Amino acid sequence: SKDHPHHRGIYWAWPEVGFGSKLGDLHALQIVFARPTGNIKLTEETDVAQVEAENLWMWRDSIPVVSEVAVIRAYRADGRGRVIDLAFRFVALRDSITLARRETKFYGGLNIRMQTPKSQEISFFRDSSVNVPVRAWSDLSGLFHGYGTGSGLLVLQHHNNPDYPGEYIQYPDLSWIQPTFPESGTRFKLVKGVPLILRYRLFIHSGMKPDDALTAKLWDEFNGKNAPELTFTIHEIQ
User: Fold this and answer.
1) Among 144, 165, 198, 207, which residue's beta carbon has the most beta carbons within 10 A?
2) CB 194 within 8 Å of CB 67
3) Integer-rounded Cα radius of gyration of the chain
């Protein structure tokens, strides 16, 4: 985008990455950078295509501090829409690595910057706290350029993510919506050698916001006991 060139569509990054007493900004591309290692695996089946890729977080582009593996699995679209699953594994290679949102209370995590549509509608849902785990989701819909009818993107979190459910935040003027991580007011410590795994599901749909019954079913499919779990085949760098 012209106003925020570091906004990269759908991407995962934190504005406050701590390394000892120092802070880098993986979100705005300052001090710490996620660099591809070239280790990538592509899988194609009848109804699904998958990319698994490895990055190294490089402090000042010289010191590797975190090994990252991302899995992106896109399913063939059906009558409901298209499902894309995301899974991320982060392993600290050094001591004293932390992740935080901007000022520990604003944006950070899985970031989603959309093209600005006409008739934009951003919505959130969260179950009553008596339900365990609670269902939670967000949706951004509108009339996007080049499409005559409404469409949108639904975002689901996996209930096994730490600090689930992450707070959903929005910046409507930017067509921005995200499930934040970690919890507001905290800094998540990456323990050296211990993986942090975050999982999400995106649902691309035609029409405006799906009804809650369909979305609840999608959440259950993603979080159910029999749901397929993305696995990581690339081993973290030692």
Assistant:
1) 198
2) no
3) 18
Count of Cβ atoms closer than 10 Å to residue 116 Cβ: 15
Q: Is the pLDDT of residue 228 over 80?
A: no
Q: Residue 187: is its pLDDT beyond 90?
A: yes
Question: Order of strands across the sheet with 82-92?
Answer: 32-44, 48-59, 63-75, 82-92, 196-206, 151-157, 136-143, 118-126
Three-class SS of the chain: CCCCCCCCCEEEECCEEEECCEEEECCCCECEEEEEEEEEEEEECCCEEEEEEEEEEEECCCEEEEEEEEEEEEECCCCCCEEEEEEEEEEECCCCEEEECHHHCCCCEEEEECCCCEEEEEEEEECCCCCCCCCEEEEEEEECCCCCCCEEEEEEECCCCCCCCCCEEEEHHHCEEEEECCCCCCCEEECCCCCEEEEEEEEEEECCCCCHHHHHHHHHHHHCCCCCCCCCCCCCCC
- Note the pTM of the prediction, 2 decimals: 0.94
Task: Say how many C-beta atoms besides its own lie within 10 A of residue 38's C-beta.
Answer: 7
Share of the chain above pLDDT 70, in %: 97
Sheet of 22-24: strands edge to edge? 22-24, 16-19, 97-100, 188-190
Q: Cα dihedral angle (102, 107, 110, 116), rounded to 10 degrees?
A: -140
* Model confidence at 238: pLDDT above 80: no
Cβ(34)–Cβ(64) under 8 Å?
A: no
Tokens of 229: 């779990």
Q: What is the mean pLDDT of the chain?
A: 93
